[in-house]
Amino acid sequence: MDKIKTENTETEILKAAKEIFQQKGMAGARMQEIADKAKINKALLHYYYRSKQLLFEAVFKSAFSLLAPQLNKVLNDDSDLFEKIRKFTENYVSFVIKHPYLPNFVIQELNKNPEFVQKLRSEKNFPSIEKFKLQVSDAINQGIIKPIEAEQLFINIISLNIFPFIGEPLLMALVNVDKESYNKILENRKTEVAEFIINSIKI
Amino acid sequence: MDKIKTENTETEILKAAKEIFQQKGMAGARMQEIADKAKINKALLHYYYRSKQLLFEAVFKSAFSLLAPQLNKVLNDDSDLFEKIRKFTENYVSFVIKHPYLPNFVIQELNKNPEFVQKLRSEKNFPSIEKFKLQVSDAINQGIIKPIEAEQLFINIISLNIFPFIGEPLLMALVNVDKESYNKILENRKTEVAEFIINSIKI
DNA sequence: ATATAGTTTAACTATTTGGTTAACAAAATT
DNA sequence: AATTTTGTTAACCAAATAGTTAAACTATAT
């Protein structure tokens, strides 16, 4: 089947490109290396994706479309605030174990290319904070949590969950543990982080 | 003066190299661009630093030696735990405003080159967590704070302080504010973050 | 004044790298 | 069965890029 063969090749390329781009970034990635990993000729990369830039954009969009639903779990989920924080924290660790380089990749390339954000924003499913804001102010009015700006709380949640992965090599060195122990620490954070946040805001 | 002239050129190169490497990373930086920024011929870069790799290492070490004392403020300062958290948080924001690309640069290059950590570890002034551990367990024993592992608390402090800068483009988009408003949010974090942490752990 | 050591440049080289071309192979279409 | 379309490759090209060389220049010491 032609269709199947094509789809396989195209998927193979995207898979290989993801690995290389996410590990080395746009600037550090080499088309030849991607071709090798996909076990095809370099010209085929250009046949399917025209240029390094376009291949990169395909990888980037695909990465972001995996990350966005994760973020939406904090922002646009209907569950109760505390429950939401607990679920997100628990899920996020599992997510990053499946896609270890992904969050770092997205953040890194956004830093080097802040105008990308505009492109992402216009797309559907781009996470919005509005609902979360309402939920936080409701919880404050109902006396469930102490006054805090929703933006600050959101940044705290995201920071506590994402940074331990992005800063892994640095944190491992500072905390002075090996990979195995660090993984245990991360595993513990599945519950630890949520309780840390809830402790801070609950009345 | 010969000496002064040499030192100026060498310093000019390092200054230019810092800017370029910290913004674009090892892979994205171009020797020509560094030479242009330092207003010298490209051959002079090699005269003073032999290779891109060596120039990069000079920049990296210099960057880390600025970051290390900041981290030591949480780890090896003598002040009281709460006071320490407040001071660190306050200082860190000012530090990053002075060196916007620095923390991201260090973390990014460590991710792409985890073996760098070994080189850094052996150097003096490499931050150690031991003192902080004692301080936390003392505070727990004295009933000042709830039980928490020092490692987890440390990771939380660092995450809450560093990530808002590293994730700036992403967070700005998610929180849906412009640069000016985001800067205000960061400014507020100077006190906000410390209180968030202390609220969570104090009894 | 002159030798000497250090500094700087223009021009060059070798290699890497993204991208192209032309020929070939395999399917799909007629 | 013939032809068109799609997929794949080896060989090639031009631009970019790290690094080199040799000569010129500058300042200091002799």
UniProtKB/TrEMBL annotation, chains A, B:
Signal peptide: none annotated. GO terms for molecular function: DNA binding. Pfam families: TetR_N. Residues 7-67 form the HTH tetR-type domain. InterPro entries: Homeodomain-like_sf, HTH-type_TetR-like_transc_reg, HTH_TetR, Tet_transcr_reg_TetR-rel_C_sf. Residues 30-49 bind DNA. Keywords: DNA-binding. This is TetR family transcriptional regulator.
